[in-house]
Amino acid sequence: MEASEFDRNIHGDKYSIILPTYQERDNLPIITWMILDMADRNNLDVEIIVVEDNSPDGTGLVADELQRIYGEKRIQVLKRAGKLGLGSAYMDGIKKCNGNFVILMDADFSHHPKFIPQFIEVQKRTDCDVVTGTRYRKGGGVYGWDLYRKLTSRVANFIASFLLNPKNASDLTGSFRLYKKHVLEDIMSQVKSRGYVFQMEVIVRAEKNGYSINEVPITFVDRVYGESKLGANEIISYLKGLLGLAKDL
Amino acid sequence: MPNSFIRLGINTLAILFVWLCLYKIFCTNKDNKLYMFSLTFPLYVIYYLGCKAVGSIGYELFVLEDCDEAHKEVQAQIEQARKDLHSKGFDFNIGVQHNDQIY
Question: Which residues form the Glycosyltransferase 2-like domain (chain A) (predicted)?
Fold first, then answer.
Protein backbone atom coordinates (compact mmCIF):
# COMPACT_ATOMS: atom_id res chain seq x y z
CA MET A 1 0.00 0.00 0.00
CA GLU A 2 1.41 3.38 -0.96
CA ALA A 3 2.28 5.71 1.86
CA SER A 4 0.43 8.63 0.29
CA GLU A 5 -2.72 6.57 -0.08
CA PHE A 6 -2.80 5.79 3.58
CA ASP A 7 -1.61 9.14 4.90
CA ARG A 8 -4.19 11.32 3.27
CA ASN A 9 -7.63 10.86 4.70
CA ILE A 10 -9.39 11.28 1.37
CA HIS A 11 -12.59 9.75 2.59
CA GLY A 12 -12.74 11.94 5.67
CA ASP A 13 -13.13 8.95 7.97
CA LYS A 14 -13.40 9.74 11.64
CA TYR A 15 -12.80 7.09 14.28
CA SER A 16 -14.55 7.32 17.64
CA ILE A 17 -12.98 5.31 20.42
CA ILE A 18 -15.24 4.56 23.36
CA LEU A 19 -13.42 3.99 26.64
CA PRO A 20 -15.63 2.89 29.52
CA THR A 21 -13.80 3.62 32.73
CA TYR A 22 -14.24 2.71 36.34
CA GLN A 23 -11.39 3.26 38.80
CA GLU A 24 -8.92 3.89 36.00
CA ARG A 25 -7.27 7.10 37.13
CA ASP A 26 -3.79 5.62 36.66
CA ASN A 27 -4.41 4.08 33.26
CA LEU A 28 -6.58 6.68 31.59
CA PRO A 29 -3.92 9.36 30.97
CA ILE A 30 -1.52 6.80 29.55
CA ILE A 31 -3.98 5.10 27.23
CA THR A 32 -5.25 8.48 26.06
CA TRP A 33 -1.72 9.56 25.27
CA MET A 34 -1.01 6.30 23.45
CA ILE A 35 -4.14 6.56 21.34
CA LEU A 36 -3.62 10.17 20.33
CA ASP A 37 0.09 9.62 19.72
CA MET A 38 -0.79 6.72 17.40
CA ALA A 39 -3.41 8.88 15.69
CA ASP A 40 -0.92 11.69 15.05
CA ARG A 41 1.74 9.38 13.70
CA ASN A 42 -0.75 7.72 11.35
CA ASN A 43 -2.58 10.87 10.38
CA LEU A 44 -5.93 9.60 11.63
CA ASP A 45 -8.92 11.67 12.67
CA VAL A 46 -9.67 10.23 16.09
CA GLU A 47 -11.84 11.19 19.02
CA ILE A 48 -11.99 9.51 22.41
CA ILE A 49 -15.22 9.21 24.33
CA VAL A 50 -14.62 8.48 27.98
CA VAL A 51 -17.66 6.96 29.64
CA GLU A 52 -17.03 7.55 33.31
CA ASP A 53 -19.14 5.77 35.90
CA ASN A 54 -18.51 8.09 38.84
CA SER A 55 -15.38 6.35 40.11
CA PRO A 56 -14.51 7.08 43.72
CA ASP A 57 -10.84 7.46 42.80
CA GLY A 58 -11.42 10.63 40.82
CA THR A 59 -11.19 9.23 37.30
CA GLY A 60 -13.77 11.79 36.23
CA LEU A 61 -11.50 14.65 37.20
CA VAL A 62 -8.61 12.99 35.40
CA ALA A 63 -10.77 12.77 32.27
CA ASP A 64 -11.64 16.47 32.54
CA GLU A 65 -7.97 17.31 32.93
CA LEU A 66 -7.13 15.33 29.80
CA GLN A 67 -9.85 17.17 27.95
CA ARG A 68 -8.34 20.44 29.11
CA ILE A 69 -5.00 19.45 27.59
CA TYR A 70 -6.12 17.79 24.38
CA GLY A 71 -9.26 19.75 23.62
CA GLU A 72 -12.94 18.99 23.38
CA LYS A 73 -12.68 17.95 19.75
CA ARG A 74 -10.48 15.00 20.60
CA ILE A 75 -11.80 14.04 24.02
CA GLN A 76 -15.38 13.88 25.17
CA VAL A 77 -16.27 12.96 28.72
CA LEU A 78 -19.61 11.34 29.37
CA LYS A 79 -20.32 11.15 33.07
CA ARG A 80 -22.81 8.68 34.42
CA ALA A 81 -24.31 8.29 37.87
CA GLY A 82 -22.61 5.00 38.73
CA LYS A 83 -21.49 1.59 37.53
CA LEU A 84 -24.20 0.89 34.99
CA GLY A 85 -22.50 -1.84 33.00
CA LEU A 86 -20.40 -2.17 29.88
CA GLY A 87 -23.27 -2.65 27.45
CA SER A 88 -25.05 0.50 28.52
CA ALA A 89 -21.71 2.35 28.52
CA TYR A 90 -21.28 1.51 24.87
CA MET A 91 -24.87 2.44 24.05
CA ASP A 92 -24.53 5.81 25.76
CA GLY A 93 -21.12 6.33 24.21
CA ILE A 94 -22.32 5.66 20.69
CA LYS A 95 -24.87 8.45 20.97
CA LYS A 96 -22.00 10.89 21.45
CA CYS A 97 -19.91 9.60 18.56
CA ASN A 98 -19.17 11.97 15.74
CA GLY A 99 -17.23 9.45 13.75
CA ASN A 100 -18.38 7.02 11.09
CA PHE A 101 -16.40 4.23 12.71
CA VAL A 102 -16.42 3.13 16.33
CA ILE A 103 -13.58 1.34 18.10
CA LEU A 104 -14.19 -0.49 21.34
CA MET A 105 -11.24 -1.37 23.53
CA ASP A 106 -10.13 -1.73 27.14
CA ALA A 107 -8.72 1.25 29.00
CA ASP A 108 -6.04 -0.64 30.89
CA PHE A 109 -3.61 -1.13 27.98
CA SER A 110 -4.32 -4.82 27.67
CA HIS A 111 -5.19 -3.61 24.18
CA HIS A 112 -2.48 -1.60 22.42
CA PRO A 113 -3.56 1.27 20.16
CA LYS A 114 -0.80 0.35 17.70
CA PHE A 115 -3.15 -2.27 16.25
CA ILE A 116 -5.76 0.30 15.31
CA PRO A 117 -3.97 1.29 12.07
CA GLN A 118 -3.88 -2.42 11.20
CA PHE A 119 -7.61 -2.70 11.85
CA ILE A 120 -8.21 0.32 9.64
CA GLU A 121 -6.00 -1.03 6.87
CA VAL A 122 -7.91 -4.32 6.79
CA GLN A 123 -11.23 -2.51 6.86
CA LYS A 124 -10.29 -0.24 3.99
CA ARG A 125 -8.93 -3.10 1.94
CA THR A 126 -11.99 -5.32 2.34
CA ASP A 127 -14.71 -2.79 3.24
CA CYS A 128 -15.84 -5.20 5.93
CA ASP A 129 -18.31 -4.22 8.62
CA VAL A 130 -16.36 -5.40 11.65
CA VAL A 131 -12.67 -5.95 12.36
CA THR A 132 -11.99 -7.97 15.47
CA GLY A 133 -8.70 -8.48 17.25
CA THR A 134 -7.83 -12.07 18.02
CA ARG A 135 -5.31 -13.34 20.52
CA TYR A 136 -5.44 -16.86 19.22
CA ARG A 137 -4.23 -16.59 15.63
CA LYS A 138 -0.65 -16.47 14.42
CA GLY A 139 0.85 -13.10 15.18
CA GLY A 140 -1.32 -12.68 18.23
CA GLY A 141 -0.51 -13.65 21.77
CA VAL A 142 -0.82 -12.94 25.45
CA TYR A 143 1.45 -11.74 28.19
CA GLY A 144 1.04 -12.34 31.90
CA TRP A 145 -1.04 -15.49 31.64
CA ASP A 146 0.03 -18.57 33.53
CA LEU A 147 -0.96 -22.03 32.34
CA TYR A 148 -4.15 -22.04 34.41
CA ARG A 149 -5.32 -18.76 32.92
CA LYS A 150 -4.52 -19.92 29.39
CA LEU A 151 -6.39 -23.15 30.04
CA THR A 152 -9.53 -21.48 31.33
CA SER A 153 -9.48 -19.08 28.41
CA ARG A 154 -9.14 -21.86 25.83
CA VAL A 155 -11.80 -24.02 27.47
CA ALA A 156 -14.15 -21.06 27.69
CA ASN A 157 -13.60 -20.29 24.02
CA PHE A 158 -14.05 -23.94 23.09
CA ILE A 159 -17.37 -24.26 24.90
CA ALA A 160 -18.54 -20.97 23.44
CA SER A 161 -17.53 -22.05 19.93
CA PHE A 162 -19.31 -25.35 20.38
CA LEU A 163 -22.55 -23.74 21.51
CA LEU A 164 -22.54 -20.69 19.27
CA ASN A 165 -20.82 -22.09 16.18
CA PRO A 166 -19.17 -18.95 14.81
CA LYS A 167 -18.07 -18.96 11.20
CA ASN A 168 -14.62 -17.45 11.46
CA ALA A 169 -14.28 -15.62 14.78
CA SER A 170 -11.47 -17.32 16.70
CA ASP A 171 -11.59 -15.04 19.76
CA LEU A 172 -15.17 -14.76 20.91
CA THR A 173 -14.50 -13.07 24.24
CA GLY A 174 -12.13 -10.51 22.77
CA SER A 175 -13.13 -6.90 23.23
CA PHE A 176 -10.84 -5.01 20.85
CA ARG A 177 -12.90 -4.31 17.76
CA LEU A 178 -13.58 -1.79 15.02
CA TYR A 179 -17.12 -1.35 13.72
CA LYS A 180 -18.86 0.75 11.15
CA LYS A 181 -20.97 2.97 13.34
CA HIS A 182 -24.34 1.99 11.87
CA VAL A 183 -23.43 -1.68 12.20
CA LEU A 184 -22.65 -1.33 15.90
CA GLU A 185 -25.84 0.64 16.47
CA ASP A 186 -27.84 -2.09 14.80
CA ILE A 187 -26.21 -4.89 16.82
CA MET A 188 -26.41 -3.03 20.13
CA SER A 189 -30.17 -2.72 19.76
CA GLN A 190 -30.36 -6.54 19.73
CA VAL A 191 -27.85 -7.37 22.44
CA LYS A 192 -29.29 -8.38 25.81
CA SER A 193 -26.55 -10.07 27.85
CA ARG A 194 -24.11 -8.71 30.41
CA GLY A 195 -20.58 -9.48 31.55
CA TYR A 196 -18.18 -11.70 29.62
CA VAL A 197 -20.97 -13.02 27.45
CA PHE A 198 -21.71 -9.52 26.19
CA GLN A 199 -18.65 -9.42 23.92
CA MET A 200 -19.50 -12.84 22.52
CA GLU A 201 -23.07 -11.88 21.83
CA VAL A 202 -21.96 -8.81 19.89
CA ILE A 203 -19.69 -10.72 17.52
CA VAL A 204 -22.06 -13.66 17.09
CA ARG A 205 -25.01 -11.39 16.36
CA ALA A 206 -22.85 -9.55 13.85
CA GLU A 207 -22.31 -12.83 12.01
CA LYS A 208 -25.93 -13.91 12.25
CA ASN A 209 -27.00 -10.56 10.85
CA GLY A 210 -24.81 -11.18 7.83
CA TYR A 211 -22.20 -8.53 8.53
CA SER A 212 -18.72 -9.20 7.19
CA ILE A 213 -16.04 -9.77 9.77
CA ASN A 214 -12.27 -9.88 9.47
CA GLU A 215 -9.69 -10.72 12.11
CA VAL A 216 -6.37 -9.13 13.00
CA PRO A 217 -3.97 -10.87 15.41
CA ILE A 218 -3.32 -8.76 18.48
CA THR A 219 -1.15 -9.03 21.54
CA PHE A 220 -2.93 -8.89 24.86
CA VAL A 221 -0.92 -7.64 27.85
CA ASP A 222 -2.83 -8.57 30.94
CA ARG A 223 -3.37 -5.85 33.53
CA VAL A 224 -0.32 -3.77 34.07
CA TYR A 225 -2.07 -2.06 36.93
CA GLY A 226 -4.96 -3.41 38.90
CA GLU A 227 -6.15 -6.88 39.81
CA SER A 228 -7.53 -9.69 37.69
CA LYS A 229 -10.72 -11.38 38.72
CA LEU A 230 -11.37 -14.98 37.75
CA GLY A 231 -12.99 -17.13 40.44
CA ALA A 232 -15.58 -19.88 40.63
CA ASN A 233 -18.40 -17.35 40.63
CA GLU A 234 -17.23 -15.86 37.35
CA ILE A 235 -17.06 -19.31 35.76
CA ILE A 236 -20.60 -20.20 36.80
CA SER A 237 -22.07 -16.91 35.68
CA TYR A 238 -20.17 -17.25 32.40
CA LEU A 239 -21.68 -20.66 31.70
CA LYS A 240 -25.15 -19.52 32.65
CA GLY A 241 -24.84 -16.45 30.45
CA LEU A 242 -23.49 -18.56 27.59
CA LEU A 243 -26.40 -20.99 27.76
CA GLY A 244 -28.81 -18.10 27.87
CA LEU A 245 -27.22 -16.63 24.77
CA ALA A 246 -27.24 -19.97 22.92
CA LYS A 247 -30.94 -20.35 23.63
CA ASP A 248 -31.56 -16.86 22.36
CA LEU A 249 -29.90 -17.14 18.97
CA MET B 1 -35.95 -22.53 17.95
CA PRO B 2 -32.30 -21.91 18.80
CA ASN B 3 -29.90 -22.97 16.08
CA SER B 4 -27.32 -24.80 18.18
CA PHE B 5 -30.01 -26.77 19.99
CA ILE B 6 -31.44 -27.91 16.66
CA ARG B 7 -27.95 -29.06 15.66
CA LEU B 8 -27.54 -30.90 18.95
CA GLY B 9 -30.94 -32.54 18.53
CA ILE B 10 -30.26 -33.72 14.98
CA ASN B 11 -26.83 -35.07 15.94
CA THR B 12 -28.31 -36.95 18.87
CA LEU B 13 -31.00 -38.47 16.66
CA ALA B 14 -28.35 -39.49 14.11
CA ILE B 15 -26.30 -41.24 16.79
CA LEU B 16 -29.37 -42.99 18.15
CA PHE B 17 -30.29 -44.13 14.64
CA VAL B 18 -26.83 -45.55 13.96
CA TRP B 19 -26.91 -47.21 17.37
CA LEU B 20 -30.23 -48.85 16.55
CA CYS B 21 -28.90 -50.16 13.23
CA LEU B 22 -25.74 -51.53 14.85
CA TYR B 23 -27.79 -53.14 17.58
CA LYS B 24 -30.13 -54.80 15.10
CA ILE B 25 -27.24 -56.08 12.97
CA PHE B 26 -24.60 -57.14 15.50
CA CYS B 27 -26.36 -57.82 18.76
CA THR B 28 -28.25 -60.91 17.65
CA ASN B 29 -25.84 -63.27 19.36
CA LYS B 30 -23.27 -62.68 22.10
CA ASP B 31 -20.34 -64.25 20.22
CA ASN B 32 -20.37 -61.64 17.45
CA LYS B 33 -17.13 -59.64 17.36
CA LEU B 34 -18.91 -56.28 17.38
CA TYR B 35 -21.41 -57.22 20.09
CA MET B 36 -19.92 -55.16 22.92
CA PHE B 37 -19.05 -52.26 20.65
CA SER B 38 -22.56 -52.07 19.22
CA LEU B 39 -24.16 -52.39 22.61
CA THR B 40 -22.16 -49.48 24.05
CA PHE B 41 -21.83 -47.41 20.87
CA PRO B 42 -22.83 -44.03 22.38
CA LEU B 43 -19.99 -44.37 24.89
CA TYR B 44 -17.53 -44.61 22.01
CA VAL B 45 -19.07 -41.49 20.52
CA ILE B 46 -18.65 -39.61 23.79
CA TYR B 47 -15.09 -40.90 24.07
CA TYR B 48 -14.33 -39.73 20.54
CA LEU B 49 -15.81 -36.29 21.14
CA GLY B 50 -13.87 -36.03 24.39
CA CYS B 51 -10.63 -36.82 22.60
CA LYS B 52 -11.41 -34.22 19.97
CA ALA B 53 -12.08 -31.62 22.66
CA VAL B 54 -8.91 -32.39 24.58
CA GLY B 55 -6.91 -32.43 21.39
CA SER B 56 -8.33 -29.14 20.21
CA ILE B 57 -7.84 -27.38 23.52
CA GLY B 58 -4.36 -28.88 23.92
CA TYR B 59 -3.33 -27.79 20.45
CA GLU B 60 -4.62 -24.25 20.95
CA LEU B 61 -2.84 -24.07 24.29
CA PHE B 62 0.36 -25.17 22.59
CA VAL B 63 0.21 -22.54 19.87
CA LEU B 64 -0.93 -19.67 22.09
CA GLU B 65 2.03 -17.37 21.99
CA ASP B 66 3.58 -15.40 24.79
CA CYS B 67 4.56 -11.89 23.90
CA ASP B 68 7.20 -10.54 26.25
CA GLU B 69 8.25 -7.83 23.81
CA ALA B 70 4.76 -6.41 23.90
CA HIS B 71 4.97 -6.08 27.66
CA LYS B 72 8.34 -4.33 27.48
CA GLU B 73 7.02 -2.05 24.77
CA VAL B 74 4.07 -1.06 26.93
CA GLN B 75 6.30 -0.38 29.91
CA ALA B 76 8.57 1.86 27.84
CA GLN B 77 5.59 3.72 26.41
CA ILE B 78 4.13 4.30 29.86
CA GLU B 79 7.32 6.12 30.80
CA GLN B 80 7.23 8.09 27.57
CA ALA B 81 3.58 8.99 28.11
CA ARG B 82 4.26 10.18 31.64
CA LYS B 83 7.08 12.46 30.54
CA ASP B 84 5.13 13.92 27.66
CA LEU B 85 2.01 14.53 29.71
CA HIS B 86 4.09 16.14 32.42
CA SER B 87 5.63 18.48 29.90
CA LYS B 88 2.15 19.39 28.69
CA GLY B 89 1.23 20.42 32.19
CA PHE B 90 -0.94 17.47 33.10
CA ASP B 91 -1.72 17.22 36.80
CA PHE B 92 -1.38 13.56 37.76
CA ASN B 93 -2.63 14.21 41.25
CA ILE B 94 -5.89 15.88 40.37
CA GLY B 95 -8.76 14.60 42.52
CA VAL B 96 -6.56 12.45 44.73
CA GLN B 97 -8.04 12.24 48.19
CA HIS B 98 -5.57 12.87 50.94
CA ASN B 99 -6.13 10.80 54.03
CA ASP B 100 -4.28 12.95 56.52
CA GLN B 101 -6.94 13.83 58.97
CA ILE B 102 -6.44 15.44 62.29
CA TYR B 103 -8.25 13.73 65.12
Answer: 16-187
